[in-house]
Design goal:
Helix content is about 45%, strand content about 15%. It is of the alpha/beta class and about 350 residues long. The chain has a 5-stranded parallel sheet, sandwiched between helices. Strands 9-8-10-11-12 form a 5-stranded parallel sheet, sandwiched between helices. It has a two-stranded antiparallel ribbon with strand order 1-2. Bound molecules: fructose -6-phosphate (F6R). Homodimer.
Length: about 350
Amino acid sequence: DLGGHDTYMHKEISEQADAVDRALRGRIDDRFSTVHLGGLNLDAREARGVRRVKILGCGTSYHAGQIGAQMIEELARIPSDAEPASEFRYRDPVVDPDTLYVAVSQSGETYDVLAAVQELKRKGARVLGLVNVVGSAIARETDGGIYVHAGPEVCVVSTKCFTNMVVSFALLALHLGRIRDLSVADGKRIIDGLRKLPGQIDEILKGEEEIKKLSAAYADAKSMMFIGRVRGYPVAREASLKLKEVSYIHAEAYPASELKHGPLALIEPAMPTVAIVPDDDLLEKNRAALEEIKARSGRILAVAHQEQEKADHTIIVPKNEPELDPILMGIPLQLLAYHTALALGRDIDKPRNLAKSVTVE
Ligand code: F6R
């Protein structure tokens, strides 16, 4: 049931405030400035013993994992990283008993992720799942985990589930942080930020008409560059994947800091750049990257907390806590991908060559 929307992608983008609300519901504990994650199956002693976190997923779920790894490292101070499950499986990885593995998947059926989980379990590792579909194969194979509660996602490309995965990683990071050394004050700060998310998502979605106009200005591009730095980089990667999948426009994502090490050679008027520019302590560095692009006559669309002078257009998003900003900054770019694909007449809910769940190798 499309409920008045013309595609599932549009419906699912529009449902994100409710979806995030569902992910938070019943989990916040104001008394101890933490969250309860019922199915985690990891007691405080075990949580304190974790030395590393390794997150495994594919595609969009891998990008959610990259943001999640940064959140866990920032809030729980545990070294963390994400890797495509499909790569991890084949490189004979060292499996370490003090590492907490987290498998992230919308469908819970992606073969590469499932096979990575099975290999880890065979080697005696502790694996949690961060999954949308209840009772799916990955949910069953893992030792415990978090359901992301995005609700059914029908469109082949993932939008609301990505957002809920990132929110669920924020919950995990807060939970691990509060068991370890995150202060009550910081716990409370993050909880206040989480509670603001649904309202802020609706605020972003109200800007759809403006984003639609912008997409008309960029739909003629043959190729687009997406850049971000640290927290903004996985946001740029996910936005670039979304644009590719639904519009078939070629897109590259780079850390803004890497531009001068090669990709700057691509910048010219026919290669527009989408830049993620949060108002954090890297703002000046990001502005310098915009200047370098402008000096090569590149067109710039910034997603930022305030108007960017060097950009041709700025989409302003509401500010949250810096650790949670990545949750919001990708949302206008889902709409950008959607409206670009619509303008180009693409089959939005079923892009060519793609399947909703990849259950083969
Ligand atoms: C992107 C997309 C794919 C999936 C990937 C993993 O929009 O839909 O990249 O994210 O195939 O799927 P799940 O999350 O079901 O494991």
